[in-house]
Give the backbone structure.
Amino acid sequence: MNDAATQNHGASEGDDNDVSPSRRSVLRTTAGVAGAGLTLGAVGAAPASAADTAVPGAPKDSAPPRKGPTMAGVPFERRSTVRVGIIGLGNRGTSMLGVFLAQQGVRIVALCEPVRAKAERAAAKVVAAGQPAPAIYAKDEDDYRRLCERGDLDLVYVATPWETHFAMAKAAMLGGKHVGVECPVAMRLDELWALVDLSERTRRHCMQLENCCYGRNELRVLRMAHAGLFGELLHTAGAYNHDLRDLLFDPDYYEGPWRRKWHTRLRGDLYPNHAFGPVANYLDVNRGDRAVSIVSFGTPALGLAEYRAANMPPGDPSFKESYTSADRTFSMVRTAKGRVIRLEHDVSTPHPYSRINSLGGTKGVFEDYPARIYLEPDHSNHQWGDFGRYADWDHWLWKEHANPPGGHGGMDYLMVFRLMQCMRLGLVPDFDVYDAATWTAPVPLSHASIRAQGAPQEIPDFTRGEWRKARSGMDSAKPVE
């Protein structure tokens, strides 16, 4: 990944629009309900005071009954053209529109954005790319529902503020559409279960579009791990350590400012997916192993207030905010096989960008930022080796697209390319609703663990036992077009 891509990575994840529920209603109500969804009851059913100390998640032997057959291993329907609707045309949605337009066999049919000027600019880009003018849904912040009801869409892509993701993914699946959602897929544990149930009942895939899973280093390490080069796998580590203070206080970048507001609501890891997704793939989580519990600790929340005092003018509305989210969270996830995953999150203090991205086994270890490796018998004398010498282990996606276009060092392009390929050829997606729920579960569970002084929290088995069956995932074979 080039330096520019690294510095910008994740800054636009899930940006930047205000789609239903309305921005005003979200800011009024989310503080009261963010903790309420930590238990497995109906949405909003548990009071926040009870949720703060309860151990979330159903017992291992009492997961909610299925609403339909498993979605694990279920292929898409084959189609010659993938018809896409996009909800949200802020920073992230607009950048990803160009990535979708760069794909063969993809048509942008509909766009939803309550700021009509943004929608019209995006529609002009679609026409300029040689496609028919897409339908525009810009009546109000609930207009995404009409988009999801269309009969000529195969996939709905959601790139809006976090608190809207659940409602939009739900509407898409109820409308008969597959749905891909920016990180995180939802903010509450009961919402994650609801998405699993809806995916199984509607037979529509609900996918967390985790672009970091398609990083060149991540895919190379994945293939090496599956080939046994690291021996028996023991531990992994991932992070989203990205200094976002300037953007969090930018009145235009995070419109609302919706993202900064989350630092007043939850103490835990607000954005675990970039960390958890790739390293979970290394360990075949949900495909032979599963995450069973999480323990989290957090530092005091000082960074944002200190930055505000030094950089924001007196009287700025942000001075009314009290930040409670830990500047850095540390989580340890235990798997059914006894392996350990370390997760970190920090967007509030000065530090270089890092996702850590580490894997260790009985034959050696890989660590990223910078990339380095130590494997027996290749290396000895406590000297790191050159990871570049293992380029032969690159995933076929990177061999076929050595210099992919688009943001985040090409990860965005490869993610969309692969998803569109799977949909056109009728293949099983690289990840599914169970991965989306698992990778996002640390949002509510880390908050609960920190509030409970580091008490372990159970991570539900969203697969309902399917994790015991080995199956393919990101380490896919190149298909025949």
Remarks:
- The two ends are 28 Å apart (CA to CA).
- DSSP finds 17 helices and 14 strands in the chain.
- The longest helix spans residues 411-425.
